[in-house]
C-alpha cells in the first residue's frame, strides 16, 4: 500500500554508492542545481526512486510553480538521443559509476555534468541520513574535476522473517569474496568490509548478519 511502511525490512550489507547524476547539453549552460529551474528535465517516471529523489530535492528548493522543472518521463535508452536533439535540456538518473549510459551520453554530443550541491541538498541530507555528500570521480570520464553530488548505497536487503542462519551464510560468503568483487567492476573497486556493514544501511541489521559480523570481529 502506498505510504505504508514495511517494518520487517532488514539490512545485510551495503555495496557501491548510487549517486544522483545529472547531465545536460553543453549549449543549455546548465552547470548547477539552480540552473535547472524552468528547464525540460527527464526526472523518471512516477513511483521510481529517481522521481522520488527529485521531488525531495525540489521540495527543499522551495521553487515557485514557474521555477519548477518541466518534467519529462523517458526510458533510459531514449535519453541520449533526447539530450542530443534538444528534446530535453538535462537528464537525471541514480547510478553507480562508471556508468555505460553516462559514457554513451558524453560521447554522443556535447554534454556536461551538473553539480548537485548547495543549501537545498544540505537540508535534504540533514533530514535523511541515508543520503551522503559524494562526488563523481572525474577521472572515470576523462574530465578535469570531480563532480559534487549526493546519494545512497546499493544495499542487500532481506526480511526479518528470513532464517538467521541463512542470512549469516550469505553475509559471510560475500565478505569472504570481497577481493573477487573488487575486480568485477570499477563501481565495486572501493568496497571495504568495515564500511559495507554500516555505511548507507537504511534498515536495522538482520540478527543473522549482526552475528556473522561479530564472529568475523568486525563489530563487538
The third-level CATH topology of the largest domain is D-Maltodextrin-Binding Protein, domain 2
Tally of contiguous helical segments? 8
The major β-sheet equals: 7 strands, mixed
Classified by CATH, the class of the largest domain is Alpha Beta
Compute the CA-based radius of gyration: 19 Å
CATH architecture of the largest domain: 3-Layer(aba) Sandwich
How many individual β-strands? 7
Q: First CA to last CA: what distance?
A: 37 Å
Low-pLDDT residue spans = none
Outline the structure in words.
It is a single chain. The chain has 220 residues and is α/β, with parallel strands linked by helices. It folds into two domains: 9-14 and 156-215, D-Maltodextrin-Binding Protein, domain 2 (3-Layer(aba) Sandwich), CATH 3.40.190.10; 15-153, Periplasmic binding protein-like II (D-Maltodextrin-Binding Protein, domain 2). Helices cover 31% and strands 23% of the residues. Strands 1, 2, 3, 4, 5, 6 and 7 form a seven-stranded mixed beta sheet that branches. Strand 2, helix 1 (49-61) and strand 3 (70-72) form a beta-alpha-beta unit. Helix 1 (49-61) crosses helix 4 and helix 5 packs across helix 8 (207-215). The longest helix is centred in the N-terminal third of the chain and has 13 residues, at 49-61. The chain starts with 8 loop residues before the first strand and ends in a 5-residue tail after the last helix. The model has no long low-confidence stretch (mean pLDDT 94).
